[in-house]
Specification:
Radius of gyration: 22 Å
Number of strands: 2
Strand content: 5-15%
Structural class: alpha+beta
Shape: rod-shaped
Helix content: 25-40%
Number of helices: 1
Strand order of the largest sheet: 1-2
Order of helices and strands: HEE
């Protein structure tokens, strides 16, 4: 009986640890000021995005503000 209870407890703890694992996004800067820009000018900036969490980070959508 003890073996069964220990096995159940181990499985329960393993499932809880999987539920607590989550991705966490870290961005170097959240905004960027381009200053004055001429009309029809092409401007670019690269953001560094890093996953510092315990699970896979999935980026589903990116939109300009």
């Amino acid at each position: 009986m003890k073996r069964i209870l220990i096995s159940i407890a181990i499985l329960w703890l393993a499932s809880i640890s999987n539920l607590l694992a989550a991705p966490k996004i870290q961005v170097d800067r959240k905004d960027w000021d381009f200053g004055q820009v001429c009309r029809n000018a092409t401007i670019r900036h690269a953001y560094v995005i890093k996953n510092v969490g315990d699970s896979t980070l999935t980026i589903k959508r990116v939109k300009a503000g």
